[in-house]
Design the sequence.
């Protein structure tokens, strides 16, 4: 249930983000989810591509610094308090969250979360019968 | 009005007589290093010369050169010509891989230093009626204490405030009635703006003279500082290997800096062929200290490029004059008065596991203060997904550099392979400061 997420180091320079997606698009790689974190000095683009190893290879070939990290994804009802309940599971198990991003296409919300212990987070969610999203499910979006 | 000269005897000595003084002192100095410094003896023997070959100034060119590297190789006290029981002061400047250049002074060396600084201050019109605010750093750097001893020697009221703490500088300048300010030209410029922005009315300040040095500055900068601070600004030149400040100084005609050549004999050489060049030609400045006891130095290559002019100055001094240095024969940068070689940055990066030695230094001058920015590539293998870890990496590089070179630096993480690689010599430095 652990998903490979790529993160790409970007300088704060206009056009760089576009270049990343252009390279991936030309390689016929789809991106299911992404998020951009920025600081005053640099940015980190996190994305879940349809083919992580191919995406990594091609980005590296284009001289980007790329890191693979483990994230998990889960679904929660698209209703008030649902995310709070999900996050309480992690909080109760003393699992920290580095960052998360999500979207709500219909009656469900999909959240990508980077816990400090991905394996333990999966176990906790399974214990609480949360709906976990696999990489292959995510690629369908 | 008669021009004040601290030591009329030496400062206005006719050339022929000066040459005799220099020849005699050179003979003594060469004997001292030959018999007391194994390094110089070995080097002279290698070249097949002994003290008997050095009879006059003309023979100076036979002697071996000394470089900063020689000082480092003999770290810390290897080139001293006196036992440590005779050394009463040590100063040091930062160096590559954290190994500083160490200089030692005997009691007489400190007296000579005070003397040449007294000449320097007197030439700028400083007397025992002045209040001299010394905003050069005190400590291992020679700037603060060099000015301090000179100030005391002329009998001025010395205010040893040291560098930084601008608010206090302004307060004391106002409350004590400082008439002379000694600091780097960039700090002088900064103080001028701080005065403008403060409650203090320039008309209430008694400031009239500035003694500025330790970093390169141009005549235009001088005019700007003079206009902004409403003072007369004097240039001083020196380097710790020779003595510190006091090697040469501006007189009121500011027609080149007078070298205290009865103590420090200058030569100009071609930095490529190492041949001595005639007066008036542009080349690298070389000094031989002929009165220093603790650390006598033979033909020290300063790497500063300049010209020498003989002839009597309008002020009456006969001391040879050097032009403002126009550049360096190596890649040394002077930032806020601190010497920095790009190789120092490189060795710090090489010692760290998390970075590559691909870097770019961007030097600029913002609000009249030099800034140093270091671009470091974030290579794939060091890259972390977490922002905090990247920021820690930046901080770690920053701390490492700052503790080694003693200068604050902004570290900017950049994408891999974005720093230009060139065939041959890599471009490591972009100096945006305008020195025109």
Sequence:
């Amino acid at each position: 249930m652990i998903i490979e997420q790529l993160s790409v180091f970007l300088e704060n320079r206009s056009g760089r983000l576009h270049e990343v997606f252009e390279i991936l698009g030309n390689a016929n790689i789809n991106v299911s989810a992404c998020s951009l974190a920025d600081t005053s000095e640099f940015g980190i683009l996190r994305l879940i591509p349809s083919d992580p190893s191919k995406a990594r290879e091609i980005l590296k070939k284009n001289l980007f610094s790329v890191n693979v990290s483990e994230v998990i994804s889960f679904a929660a009802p698209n209703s008030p308090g649902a995310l709070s309940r999900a996050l309480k599971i992690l909080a109760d198990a003393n699992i920290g969250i580095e960052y998360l991003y999500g979207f709500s296409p219909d009656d469900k919300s999909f959240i990508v979360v980077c816990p400090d212990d991905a394996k333990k987070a999966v176990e906790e969610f399974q214990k609480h019968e949360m709906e976990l999203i696999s990489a292959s499910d995510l690629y369908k979006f | 009005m008669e021009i004040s000269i601290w030591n009329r005897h030496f400062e206005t000595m006719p050339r022929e007589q000066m040459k005799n003084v220099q020849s005699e002192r050179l003979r003594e100095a060469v004997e001292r290093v030959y018999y007391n410094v194994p390094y110089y003896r070995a080097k002279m023997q290698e070249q097949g010369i002994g003290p008997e070959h050095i009879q006059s100034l003309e023979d100076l060119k036979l002697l071996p050169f000394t470089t900063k590297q020689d000082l480092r190789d003999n770290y810390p006290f290897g080139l001293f010509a006196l036992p440590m029981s005779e050394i009463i002061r040590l100063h040091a400047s930062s160096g590559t891989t954290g190994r500083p250049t160490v200089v030692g002074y005997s009691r007489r060396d400190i007296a000579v230093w005070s003397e040449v600084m007294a000449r320097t201050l007197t030439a700028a019109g400083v007397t025992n009626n002045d209040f001299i605010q010394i905003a050069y750093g005190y400590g291992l750097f020679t700037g603060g204490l060099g000015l301090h001893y000179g100030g005391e020697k002329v009998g001025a009221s010395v205010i040893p405030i040291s560098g930084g703490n601008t608010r206090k500088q302004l307060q004391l300048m106002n409350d004590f009635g400082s008439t002379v300010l000694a600091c780097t030209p960039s700090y002088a410029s900064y103080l001028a703006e701080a005065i403008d922005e403060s409650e203090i009315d320039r008309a209430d300040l008694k400031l009239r003279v500035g003694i500025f040095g330790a970093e390169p500055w141009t005549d235009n900068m001088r005019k700007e500082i003079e206009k902004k601070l409403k003072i007369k600004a004097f240039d001083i030149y020196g380097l710790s290997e020779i003595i510190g400040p006091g090697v040469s100084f501006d007189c009121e005609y500011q027609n080149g800096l007078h070298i205290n050549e009865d103590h420090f004999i200058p030569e100009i050489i071609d930095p490529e062929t190492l041949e001595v060049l005639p007066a008036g030609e542009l080349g690298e400045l070389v000094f031989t200290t002929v009165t220093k006891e603790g650390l006598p130095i033979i033909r020290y290559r300063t790497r500063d490029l300049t010209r020498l002019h003989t002839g009597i100055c309008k002020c009456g001094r006969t001391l040879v004059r050097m032009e403002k240095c126009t550049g360096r024969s190596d890649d040394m940068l002077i930032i806020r008065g601190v010497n920095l070689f790009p190789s120092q940055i490189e060795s710090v990066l090489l010692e760290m596991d998390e970075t590559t030695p691909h870097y770019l230094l961007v030097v600029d001058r913002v609000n009249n203060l030099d800034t140093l920015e270091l671009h470091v590539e974030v290579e794939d293998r060091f890259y972390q997904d977490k922002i905090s870890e990247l920021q820690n990496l930046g901080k770690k590089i920053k701390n490492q550099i700052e503790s080694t070179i003693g200068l604050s630096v902004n570290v900017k993480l950049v994408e891999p392979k974005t720093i230009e690689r060139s065939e041959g010599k890599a471009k490591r430095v972009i100096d945006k400061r305008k020195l025109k």
